[in-house]
Amino acid sequence: MKHLFFSFFFFCFFNLSAQNINQCGDRILKHQLENKYPGITEIIDKSFKSAKTKSPQKSAVLSIPVVFHVIYNKEAENVSDDLLHDQIAILNEDFRRLNENAIDTREIFENIATDAEIEFFLAESDPEGNATNGITRTFTERETFIDIEITDFLEIITECGFDFENPAVFDCILETLGSGLEIDEMKSAETGGVDAWDTNSYLNIWVVNVSLESAGAQQPFILGFAYPPTEAPNWPEGTIPEDIESKDGVVLHYQVVGRNNPEIGVLAGINDQGRTAVHEVGHYLGLRHIWGDGDCSMDDGIDDTPSASSNSQSTVAISMCSDLHIKDSCVDDLLPDMLENYMDYSLESCQNMFTKEQVDLMRSMLEGPRSGLLSNSISNIENTPSQNLVISPNPSSGQINILGVNEKIQVKIYNRAGALIMQTDKASFSIMSQPGLYFLEITDSNHHYFERIMIQ
Ligand SMILES: [Zn+2]
């Protein structure tokens, strides 16, 4: 079983093309963690199983406060506020199944594709309680947070082989890299990074350069990685490693943040939809790779995802999503490979869904080991369902009417990033803002209700 998660990009430098980009992963983290904390993977596995058995609450939107730590050496790495806001919007669209390409989900999977009812917003107060825009920016002397030279890496893969999907090859690479590969240094000021904000209360996302370097040239190496949740009560006494808590969160390579990233470079057409973050947050909330990181005998622990013998990038020549649709790598299974899933490695433009059981697991984790994230969120309000409360029209051109509320009403309107944009005590009002998704928090003596609304 694979327990730790990692989206990992090796470029085959001798023939750089989309087919030769290989995302491979979780074995590096597993290797390192097992070395430092023997038994940790078993503990995380227990947590996964126990979360699966809990049935999550339904019909409450769970919101997660996010802080981006942008750490840059060159101005190009100092990702703009606009891209970070777009990244939040992408997370919200994909986790709420409001993504434009949701219509591309094949019919065979339509019934199990679902809205996770999980949302994200930029933190409004920092750990000291000061107001914040949810973004920190820090200059670093470090040109990359991966400490391997391309030439050294090439030597290693020349020795071990290029077939990264082959476990023996991958293990050889890891053995040779040894413990010298530190991947968490962006998470500490002492090593040129930025310390996490309380990882129990915030989803920390470090945006950094994790390229391989050679004589000043850089190639993306890791696109992102994340630690899965751990269930503290399951941990043997004395072995809850404090530094894991300080490392919890998501790391994103600066070139894959948001859509229309001006620095996308060689990743254009492959990882250009801001979905590395969606995939990594999936890991952060407990999901595994959809192919189970192994052949048809390996599973991701989720019952409604089909088996697959590998990820969808490594076995089929990729140019269009329809090329990938032919892939059905495990014949015992009546379903084709679900390349639409965010936890595959398919082209990001082909990804468009989570399954119901994936959603159940993520929500269980969020209501269990990650419940600290929910405490200060604007929308973790227990909805009081009301048959007589109607918000119309929805979608709207801007004018909103709320029917069925009493006179003492208060309405707060938040944008997709979770910022309060207006409030009113009227049941009819106009939202004079750009088209997009907004959230209404409606309070009167009978209701405390949270609803999303689309302005066209
Ligand atoms: Zn992954």
Detailed description of the structure:
It is a single chain. It contains 10 helices and 17 strands. It has 456 residues and is α+β, with helices and mostly antiparallel strands. The chain folds into 2 domains: 5-374, Collagenase (Catalytic Domain) (3-Layer(aba) Sandwich), CATH 3.40.390.10; 390-455, Immunoglobulin-like (Sandwich). Helix 5 crosses helix 6 (167-177). The strands form 4 sheets. Strands 1, 2, 3, 4, 5, 6, 9 and 10 form an 8-stranded mixed beta sheet that branches. The longest helix is centred in the N-terminal third of the chain and has 15 residues, at 81-95. A hairpin with a 5-residue loop joins strand 13 and strand 14. The structure holds zinc ion (ZN).
Mean pLDDT: 81
Low-confidence stretches: 1-25
CATH architecture of the largest domain: 3-Layer(aba) Sandwich
Q: What count of structural domains?
A: 2
For the CA atoms, what is the radius of gyration? 22 Å
The CATH C-level name of the largest domain is: Alpha Beta
- Outline type: globular
What does the largest sheet look like? 8 strands, mixed
Content-based structural category = alpha+beta
Features:
about 20% strand; globular; Collagenase (Catalytic Domain); 4-stranded antiparallel β-sheet; Immunoglobulin-like; about 450 residues; binds zinc ion; 2 domains; alpha+beta; disordered N terminus; single chain
